[in-house]
Q: What sequence folds into this?
């Protein structure tokens, strides 16, 4: 049986060096690769650039622990009653995080420029916004003579895209249940793709419904099976958001809490293990 892509969570995180440009999957509190984010903190990673249209807990925790040095992102929030991510905001205000602020559409355009192999990607909706001025984006006249100008976004090329999937095969095929958010796009734009997943399944499960494959094996560099890997966020249909855990995260500013938070995370109980048994539906 082909297990060349299957590694432990620690080995997966070790593939990401200091200073890497890291695109994180999911959206806000939903299906983010949060176990991998926590493992990067445990391994003492530094200087990462985070790329994500709508991060939240992931970028906030990386800022809180001094791991993220730059972010290219849109709104950064914890949703619902929690609002803007507080340690992210503090890192920007204190100059500890360099921010390239995007809208979701402009960041998607930058990723598409990489996927399409072009030097820039047109995008609508920037007229009147300060984002173009702050980021020094160019505005070009329509070469077909409409008389309208169009803003164009330069390529956004991640070194790694990390997504959390519902299921993965040992060879590295991955699929999700529910919306893929921007995961399909970022996995096509990145130099390497890393997968964490709720469970390991047989190749036959994918061959029965090949249209559901989000990431094919030839794109995947490494994969780890990490049940509850999106905690304290949700992963449809397995579990929802752990709101009490997030409330505690936000109301406990002391440094000792972060160590306790990492130790309490679901993956901490299975450190160093690699899945060896095929899951069943």
A:
């Amino acid at each position: 049986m082909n297990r060349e892509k299957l590694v432990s969570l620690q080995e997966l995180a070790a593939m990401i060096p200091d200073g890497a440009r890291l695109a994180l999957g999911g959206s806000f509190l939903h299906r983010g690769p949060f176990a991998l984010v926590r493992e990067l903190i445990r391994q003492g990673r530094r200087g990462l650039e985070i790329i994500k249209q709508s991060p939240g807990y992931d970028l906030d925790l990386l800022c809180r622990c001094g791991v993220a040095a730059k972010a290219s992102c849109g709104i950064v929030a914890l949703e619902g009653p929690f609002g803007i991510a507080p340690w992210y905001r503090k890192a920007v205000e204190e100059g500890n995080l360099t921010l390239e602020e995007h809208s979701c559409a402009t960041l998607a355009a930058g990723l598409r420029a990489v996927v399409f192999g072009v030097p820039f990607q047109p995008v609508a909706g920037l007229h009147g916004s300060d984002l173009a001025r702050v980021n020094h984006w160019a505005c070009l006249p329509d070469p077909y003579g409409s008389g309208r100008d169009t803003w164009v976004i330069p390529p956004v090329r991640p070194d790694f895209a990390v997504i959390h999937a519902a299921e993965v095969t040992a060879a590295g095929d991955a699929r999700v249940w529910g919306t893929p958010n921007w995961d399909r796009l970022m996995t096509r734009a990145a130099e390497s793709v890393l997968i964490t997943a709720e469970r390991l399944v047989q190749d036959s499960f994918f061959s029965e419904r090949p249209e559901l494959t989000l990431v094919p094996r030839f794109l995947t560099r490494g994969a780890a099976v990490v049940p509850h890997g999106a905690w304290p966020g949700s992963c449809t249909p397995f579990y929802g958001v752990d709101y009490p855990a997030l409330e505690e995260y936000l109301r406990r500013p002391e440094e000792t809490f972060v160590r306790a938070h990492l130790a309490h995370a679901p993956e901490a109980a299975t450190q160093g293990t690699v899945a060896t048994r095929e899951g069943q539906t």
Q: What stands out?
A: Confidence is low (pLDDT under 50) at residues 276-281.
